[in-house]
Design a protein that fits this description.
alpha+beta, single chain, 187 residues, 11% strand, 4-stranded mixed sheet
Length: 187
Amino acid sequence: MSGGRGLSEADLALWAAFVETIRPLRGRAPPLLRETPPVMPPPAAPALAAPARIIPEPAPRRRPPLSLLAIGVAPPGLDGATWERLRSGRLKPARVFDLHGLTLAEAHRVLLDAVAAARAEQWRCIEIITGRGSGAEGGAIRRELPHWLNLPTLRPLVLAAAHPHPANPGATRLLLRKSTSPPRRAV
């Protein structure tokens, strides 16, 4: 449409050809050929609003995720001298916890309590005795210890783990992270 005057002869012919291709719905009469097709109002132009200023939210500060703890593998961030002392057995444990003869549930509970006690006393190194076990891969407690150390309750507390002597895989020394709380005082 130009200037609101009506359709040209070519537009009317095109409209007539289009109307001939339409099949009416069942029970309805065919459309009548009108001189002009229905006029649709032009689409309204979208109103231009001032662009909203988007301010991104600051990303929450998160600690980097802890890597999995593997017994006998130096963790990132631990100096070589401390790792060598732990791995070779020269870093003496403050306390030794023996899990021999316990069920898996009891051994897990003793391990949790041992790490909690070490944190409370601010001990840096403790030793966990799992025993060698009778199987080729060791006993059940020895097999479960690496899994327990990587649980969300213990992994943030333990920095490194190593066997203090290569011939004795039934003992594991744990180097605990430094505690930020002040030590408890005896009353």
